[in-house]
Amino acid sequence: MATLQLASWATNLTYANLTTGVLTAANKSFYNWAGCAIGGFASQPAPQIALNTTLSPFSGPPTSSILGANGSIALGFADAQVAALVNGIASHVDDYDDTHLETIIHPAGPVASALLAIAEAMGPVSGQDFMTAFVAGVEAECKLGLSVYPQHYDVGWHITSTTGSIGAAVAVSKLLRLDTPHTAQAIGIASTQVIGMQVFFGSDTKAFHIGRAAQSGLLAALLAQNGYTSADTALEAKYGWLHVTREKGLDVADVKAIELRVNPEVLVLTGKTAPTTGLEAKFSIYHAAAIGLLYGEATPSQFTDEVVRNSTVVDMRTKVNVTEDEEVPTDAAYVSVEFSDGTTLDKHVEHAKGSLENPLSEAELKTKFMEQVTLAIGEARAERAYEAFTNAGGMEDVGRIRGMY
């Protein structure tokens, strides 16, 4: 009875159950999501298109923030469902959000987008209640992902959104204090709203998956709260969700060849050899290797259309050759760079930066947040946003967070 077990676990989870390590990770994940949502709103057209399309006379009262909107109050707030959609899109549009390496799920986007929207709409909500619900939703996503990965991903599903709607439903149900039977119904309603296929990677629609998952999970919890029914065995039934679903010192101009040895799953996710847009480049290990050598970093600034089409970058990409090796862990890589004079530099990446074994430091995570948000709202407001989101766990009302920056 996976559906009931998940609902029961989420219902009984308390703030006291959460260790210091879990709370620290949850707080980092939440404010990292906020940085991506604020910065992402202005970096790509998709969030604004979604807002312009959905914010209409048919929308409900503007109760919830569009985090990155800098215009009038009328454009900075929407009803909870629209806010969940737009913030979800904005948080993922740069593909710069957090990643659960074992499943390659981006867990914060669907959950936080739904959770903040409902917290603002139905507050006040304490930081402790908010973080408990956030952890419940993220844990639900990742546990579901582990149960179906990699087969689920390999056949073409976008695992962040297919698990994300359920994670969002669990989180919002927790915040609404639904009992176990109602939470189970919310899980079922969310699970039938499966969304997201990999054919859309490299387009605006990939980020739409996350926004829609947040919106779907939010709706599922609200429907269940009001007596809407689904299937008691939505996850585990025969036809249920589980079953159907740098080196320095040499001149990079003299690079002759770049050899990468990685786990086969890396090419499943990032196998685009010749991307033509910034969106496509996010799914190209060839582009990532090229900009790593040329720029020494890989931020959204290196995944723009202009950089992707730069002749030097294009030339460097053609020098990258990738070999698959089942023995290489999914978070590791072997890199060998050969130069024209015969010199070879070898690098073994034991654990990818940002993984559990090689996490970003506090300073690195703040730098990531500030770079994203400063581009969107300026340095002074970015500092205030950083202070607000990093201290969300101690707030009496998280729903007031948008007004703090």
TrEMBL record:
GO terms for molecular function: lyase activity. It comes from the Eukaryota. Residues 5-245 form the MmgE/PrpD N-terminal domain. InterPro entries: MmgE/PrpD_sf (IPR036148), MmgE/PrpD_sf_1 (IPR042183), MmgE/PrpD_sf_2 (IPR042188), MmgE_PrpD (IPR005656), MmgE_PrpD_N (IPR045336). Belongs to the PrpD family. This is 2-methylcitrate dehydratase PrpD. It comes from Trematosphaeria pertusa.
